[in-house]
Every structure is written in C-alpha cells, then in structure tokens.
Amino acid sequence: MKSTFEKTGGTYTLGADGIYYPNLVSTDEEPHYGKYGMMRKT
Length: 42
Description:
Blueprint: H1 4-7, E1 12-14, E2 20-22, H2 35-41
Antiparallel strand pairs: 1-2
C-alpha cells in the first residue's frame, strides 16, 4: 500500500541506519505572503 506522499509522486531513500527518508526538493522561489504575512514582515 502506497503512502499519500508516494501517491503524489514522492520518493524515499534508505538511510545507513535502516530508516527510509523522503526525498525533498527545495524550490528557490520567493514565498507568497498574504495580508497578515506582509503586516508581520514589516
């Protein structure tokens, strides 16, 4: 049975300690801030 992460295209890598870690990709895009995020940022 696949996890929700795998159903959306995610993959895992087996670590040296025997635990599967998700392969996460960082995007270098600037995050979108809403009204309250902009208020806190300023």
